[in-house]
Recover the amino acids of this structure.
């Protein structure tokens, strides 16, 4: 630090405004030193495992040392075995229930909270955001209690107004909407806040212009709000879909995949195959199916955000 | 602002405006109450005696308050240990990830070296990999290292995070370059620039990332479920799942007391820093 050879870091001309980094010829070795800890972790626990999972997905590895190359058998099984195929269907169903509902709830509440007529908007924003910080597992415990067929408060209240819901978590038809509802309850606050931020970016003058042209509230919503929210909407849709593809916590806690595997999701299956049945090959193939789906959605996101990403990278 | 809102352009007070205000507030209040019902059930049930929890008809607010659920959660589970584990796990990941991420982000944002762009692209690309997709090989590696049921196994695989690197890099790029150039003229080395110039100026970004990392790991279920096999090494979320008996009977009082303790640190953090919390979410959607 105090050596006289300090000239080794000489002054470099500042980059032109918004330009490239200023110390152009910084030694790769020094940069590498800064990158090293993160690179080691990412290489060991993200990039290498990705390659490893791909290899495993073509084997019948069981974790006990014996593994044979089985080609596309695992993938073939995923797309022919009706039990596993059903988990793909369940995940698709889950995603198609979760995404639009979470979106509509979040957008409706964002619009309500953005209404200037509403008092204490800050308080409501905070209160409605609260579920987001609660873990999905804890939320699932609370909902399980509320929906308990004997002592559940919600079950009881619904019964007093004449709605018999029975044991929703043991009902092959109602179990899935229930775990979806818990995920929506936990996550809508996140999407709502993102929507509020998007809404606040819309210039007031657009609404005034629309009003002068005689547009009613619904016209103003479809012709000003929705198009102006474009990017935000795309972000939330893709974000919500990716979250839905990875559904696990609430299913693990509330139904364990049942009844009759009606709530069995891809990640639930991956966990059971990989860590309970030790069928590492099949679980790895499943993880690549999940990866492919996520990648597809991310590419869609990149198409929406393409220009912006290029600006910042 | 309220004055201009309650009067129309002609300056007259609009009749019915106040009524609409109240109606709107009442509607949103009712919605909020519905949304917060599960939170209320956790809080109230945690203080309810068992007899009341099993009584019919069920009630929301306890008639008599008790602490028995809180004492029971500490005897039914190694709960103090679970709490400590959660804290060390989430805190450890946050500490490591923030250090490693900010170092890497500094290199990517401020040092121009061969391969800079390529590394950045690789890191951004890895954001699309769901962690479940690498779970099995990561587990195998952790097992080979003998790290199952250790804090190393829980923490080290998450000690750097592509999102954190990218997020901080974006923030570092936006800091004025004159700051570090001035320091370099004064003879500061790169690490000195990083530590004394960049980090102090990036406190808001670091804090945002710290909140996100801590909350996500504190709340995580799948990760501790996979990397710990003994109740002693579990976290609160994974530990609570042990309360569900094989018959499916759940001791709700104990469970809700555990849930309340699990939520409490985050709730306190949230109430203190709610503005930053909410702003950080808003910026993830826009940036």
């Amino acid at each position: 630090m105090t050596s006289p050879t300090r000239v080794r870091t000489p002054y470099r001309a500042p980059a032109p405004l918004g330009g490239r980094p200023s110390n152009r010829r910084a030694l790769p070795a020094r940069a590498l030193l800064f990158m090293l800890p993160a690179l080691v972790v990412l290489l060991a626990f993200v990039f290498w495992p990705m390659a490893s999972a791909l290899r495993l997905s073509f084997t019948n590895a069981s974790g006990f040392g014996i593994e044979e190359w089985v080609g596309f058998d695992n993938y073939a099984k995923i797309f022919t075995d009706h039990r596993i195929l059903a988990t793909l269907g369940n995940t698709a169903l889950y995603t198609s229930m979760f995404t639009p509902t979470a979106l509509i709830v979040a957008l409706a509440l964002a619009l309500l909270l953005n209404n200037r007529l509403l008092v204490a908007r800050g308080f409501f924003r905070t209160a409605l955001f609260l579920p987001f910080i609660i873990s999905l597992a804890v939320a699932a415990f609370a909902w399980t209690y509320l929906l308990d067929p004997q002592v559940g408060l919600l079950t009881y209240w619904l019964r007093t107004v004449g709605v018999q819901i029975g044991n929703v978590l043991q009902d092959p038809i109602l179990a899935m909407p229930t775990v979806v509802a818990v995920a929506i309850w936990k996550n809508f606050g996140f999407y709502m806040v993102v929507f509020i931020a998007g809404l606040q970016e819309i210039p007031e003058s657009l609404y005034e212009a629309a009003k002068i042209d005689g547009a009613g509230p619904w016209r103003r919503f479809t012709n000003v709000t929705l198009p102006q929210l474009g990017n935000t909407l795309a972000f939330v849709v893709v974000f919500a879909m990716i979250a839905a593809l990875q559904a696990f916590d609430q299913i693990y806690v509330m139904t364990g995949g049942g009844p009759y595997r009606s709530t069995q999701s891809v990640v639930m299956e991956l966990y059971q195959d990989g860590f309970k049945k030790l069928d590492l090959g099949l679980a790895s193939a499943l993880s690549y199916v999940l990866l492919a789906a996520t990648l597809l959605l991310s590419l869609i996101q990149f198409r929406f955000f393409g220009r912006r990403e290029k600006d910042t990278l | 602002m309220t004055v201009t809102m309650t009067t129309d352009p002609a300056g007259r007070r609009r009749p019915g405006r106040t009524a609409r205000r109240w109606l709107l507030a009442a509607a949103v209040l009712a919605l909020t109450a519905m949304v917060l019902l599960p939170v209320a059930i956790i809080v109230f049930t945690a203080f309810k005696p068992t007899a009341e929890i099993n009584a019919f008809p069920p009630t929301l607010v306890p008639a008599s308050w008790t602490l028995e659920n809180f004492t029971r959660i500490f005897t039914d589970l190694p709960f103090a240990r679970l709490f400590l584990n959660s804290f060390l796990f989430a805190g450890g990941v946050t500490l490591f990830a923030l250090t490693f991420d900010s170092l890497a982000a500094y290199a990517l944002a401020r040092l121009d070296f061969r391969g800079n762009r390529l590394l950045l692209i690789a890191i951004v690309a890895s954001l699309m990999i769901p962690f479940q997709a690498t779970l099995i090989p990561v587990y195998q590696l952790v097992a080979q290292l003998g790290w199952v049921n250790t804090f190393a196994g829980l923490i080290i695989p998450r000690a750097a995070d592509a999102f954190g690197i990218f997020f901080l890099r974006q923030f570092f790029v936006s800091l004025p370059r004159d700051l570090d150039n001035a320091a370099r003229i004064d003879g500061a080395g790169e690490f000195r620039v990083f530590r004394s110039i960049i980090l102090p100026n990036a406190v808001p970004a670091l804090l945002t990332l710290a909140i996100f990392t801590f909350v996500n790991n504190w709340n995580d279920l799948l990760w501790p479920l996979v990397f710990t096999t003994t109740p002693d090494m579990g976290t609160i979320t994974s530990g609570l799942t042990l309360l569900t008996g094989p018959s499916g009977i759940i001791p709700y009082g104990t469970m809700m007391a555990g849930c309340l303790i699990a939520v409490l640190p985050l709730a306190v953090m949230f109430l203190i820093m709610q503005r930053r919390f909410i702003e950080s979410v808003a910026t993830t959607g826009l940036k």
User: Anything to note?
Assistant: Chain A has a mean pLDDT of 86. The longest helix of chain A spans residues 82-114. Residues 232 and 294 of chain A are 19 Å apart (CA to CA). The two ends of chain A are 33 Å apart (CA to CA).
